[in-house]
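Ops channel
N.P.: pipeline sanity check, posting one input/output pair.
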């Protein structure tokens, strides 16, 4: 699916003011394992200058987007939940133009921090994959590009000397699921491959230009969509030094750049340590802000995904 299943202009008007808005996931891009009759919830992320002011305005404009529990507790509770753990607040199963949407609200500051430093990888990981950017600005665009470069560098350190273009995209798409508790309990086990195989061209458009312009000294693009990279200690160290600051912070022990296994294992563990707790805490936050029936419906939807091929 390439066309938006909703009116973009009406969405942006309904939820203004926004600095950034994106739609992502299986409702926007085809994924293997989904049938045409499936109409998954449309996933959205909004970045705003001041979440507190934005929620205050949105509570007046769109009060029913918020759970009854949240409306009763008021703006102070929403502010507290916004800042808790992942710095993102979700409203789920919101009716919009005969579909259901789920939108997360994050400050522009926290979004840029996640994209450039990988603070939680919660939004950065979603932007490793093709997404529909509905609105943005120069600061965020620059951060998005930095995030893609971080994904490339991380994938190269995790991959062997020789690999295919598909291997490369699968490794990138899988970064945000490393250590994610959802992959144990709530997600289709073939999810990463389905994402790539359903939108291979989208990954090509996202990464090919950067690879050709900036990685000529690291990789060789071979015929038949095959790739060879320089795994010398000097090059591996140079790639490692470009990783986001929080990932390097999580890798607490020195790396032996003579050993590709040591590099791969420590980078992998670093990524997992970033992702694990946000993947646990964000669903808990959802339980704190949602009504019980909505929580059950959302949890059941996640459970069903695990049975898709």
């Amino acid at each position: 699916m390439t066309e938006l299943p909703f009116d973009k202009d009406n969405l942006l008007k309904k939820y203004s003011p926004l600095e950034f808005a994106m739609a992502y996931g299986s409702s926007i891009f085809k994924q293997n394992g989904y049938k045409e009759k499936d109409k998954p919830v449309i996933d959205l992320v909004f970045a705003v200058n001041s979440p507190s002011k934005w929620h205050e305005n949105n509570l007046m404009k769109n009060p029913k987007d918020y759970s009854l529990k949240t409306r009763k507790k008021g703006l102070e509770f929403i502010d507290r939940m916004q800042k808790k753990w992942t710095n993102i607040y979700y409203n789920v199963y919101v009716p919009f133009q005969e579909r259901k949407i789920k939108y997360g609200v994050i400050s522009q500051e926290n979004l840029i921090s996640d994209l450039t430093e990988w603070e939680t990888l919660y939004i950065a990981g979603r932007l490793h994959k093709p997404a529909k950017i509905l609105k943005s600005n120069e600061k965020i665009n620059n951060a998005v590009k930095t995030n893609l470069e971080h994904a490339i560098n991380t994938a190269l350190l995790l991959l062997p000397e020789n690999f295919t273009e598909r291997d490369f995209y699968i490794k990138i798409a899988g970064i945000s699921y490393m250590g994610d508790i959802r992959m144990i309990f709530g997600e289709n086990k073939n999810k990463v491959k389905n994402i790539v195989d359903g939108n291979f061209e989208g990954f090509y458009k996202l990464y090919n230009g950067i690879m050709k312009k900036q990685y000529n000294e690291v990789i060789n693009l071979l015929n038949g969509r095959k790739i060879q990279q320089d795994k010398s200690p000097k090059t591996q160290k140079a790639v490692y030094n470009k990783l986001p600051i929080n990932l390097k912070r999580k890798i607490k022990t020195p790396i032996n750049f003579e050993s590709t296994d040591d590099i791969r294992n420590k980078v992998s563990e670093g990524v997992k340590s970033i992702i694990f707790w946000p993947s646990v805490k964000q669903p808990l936050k959802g339980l704190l802000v949602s009504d019980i029936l909505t929580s059950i419906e959302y949890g059941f939807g996640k459970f069903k995904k695990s049975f898709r091929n």
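N.P.: looks fine end to end. The first strand starts at residue 20 and ends at 24.
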